[in-house]
């Protein structure tokens, strides 16, 4: 492994594009399909302005759009029958049993993993996971107190379409900073853990002396 590889976070040797799947999804996030990415950003901004500045809610907006779409298709189909013209080119969509089973298996695995982590945390088997989960919950609580769910969704889309491409451009610099910060956090955790253990040992010794 070269010195440049060691500067990569988690000692990985794959690119950001490969981590994101290497397909169309990764191309959109990393702005390799600029028209699609820009369209998503503009649509997200327009939707946010629409919902924030008008009395529309997401549910009423979706319902009205679907109602308008169904009305257009219905009138199109009826007029096509009367005028002997082609019907609307609507594809016949249907979920296959294989896709359904794969999705169900994926959801099941994720839920089982979540339950397993929760079980370990509840029994005190993994202090590191407990600290991480607690930090995430505190962060979510802070974010939830600062904004509403709708704005959070739009902000998340914006970050997904900007942070990865910025990280890919300045990858080595960011990884170097994060690795240094991670090492400092590990040293602080080890020191904190040792202090807690020493305090517990001292408390046990004091209790034994009193007994």
Which SSEs are present, and which pair or pack?
Layout: H1 3-6, H2 16-19, H3 24-29, H4 34-53, H5 58-83, H6 97-122, H7 127-146, H8 149-160, H9 163-169, H10 171-210
Domain Reticulon: 25-184
InterPro entries: Reticulon, Reticulon-like
Keywords: Endoplasmic reticulum, Membrane, Transmembrane, Transmembrane helix
Mean pLDDT over all positions? 81
Structural class: mainly alpha
Q: Residue ranges: pLDDT <50 for 5 or more in a row?
A: 1-6
- Rg is 26 Å
β-strand percent reads under 5%
What's the overall geometry?
elongated
Tally of DSSP helical segments? 10
Strand segment tally: 0
The helix-strand sequence is HHHHHHHHHH
In whole angstroms, how far apart are the ends?
57 Å
- Helicity, in percent? over 70%
Profile the largest sheet: none
Describe this structure in words.
With 211 residues, the protein is mainly α. Among the domains are: 112-152; 171-211. The chain has ten helices and no strands. It has helices spanning 3-6, 16-19, 24-29, 34-53, 58-83, 97-122, 127-146, 149-160, 163-169, 171-210. Helix 4 packs antiparallel against helix 8 (149-160). The chain is elongated. It is a multi-pass membrane protein. It comes from Artemisia annua (Sweet wormwood). Residues 25-184 form the Reticulon domain. The chain crosses the membrane at residues 35-51, 57-77. It is found in: Endoplasmic reticulum membrane.
Q: Which properties best describe this structure?
A:
mainly alpha, 211 residues, 10 helices
Question: What is the gist of this entry?
Answer:
The chain has about 210 residues and is mainly α.
């Amino acid at each position: 492994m070269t010195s440049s590889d060691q500067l990569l976070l988690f000692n990985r040797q794959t690119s950001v594009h490969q981590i994101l799947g290497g397909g169309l999804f990764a191309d959109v996030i990393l702005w390799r399909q600029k028209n699609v990415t820009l369209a998503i950003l503009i649509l997200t901004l327009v939707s946010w302005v629409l919902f924030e500045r008008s009395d529309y809610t997401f549910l009423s907006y979706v319902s009205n759009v679907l109602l308008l779409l169904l009305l257009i298709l219905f009138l199109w189909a009826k007029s096509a029958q009367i005028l002997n013209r082609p019907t609307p080119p609507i594809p016949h969509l249907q979920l296959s049993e294989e896709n359904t089973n794969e999705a169900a298996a994926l959801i099941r695995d994720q839920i089982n993993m979540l339950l397993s982590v929760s079980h370990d945390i509840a029994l005190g088997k993994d202090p590191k996971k407990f600290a991480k989960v607690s930090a995430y919950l505190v962060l979510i609580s802070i974010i939830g107190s600062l904004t509403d769910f709708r704005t959070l969704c739009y902000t998340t889309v914006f970050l997904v379409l900007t942070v990865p491409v910025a990280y890919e451009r300045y990858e080595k610099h960011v990884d170097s900073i994060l690795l240094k910060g991670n090492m400092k956090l590990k040293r602080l955790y080890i020191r904190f853990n040792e202090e807690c253990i020493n305090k517990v040992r001292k408390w046990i010794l004091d209790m034994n002396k009193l007994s």
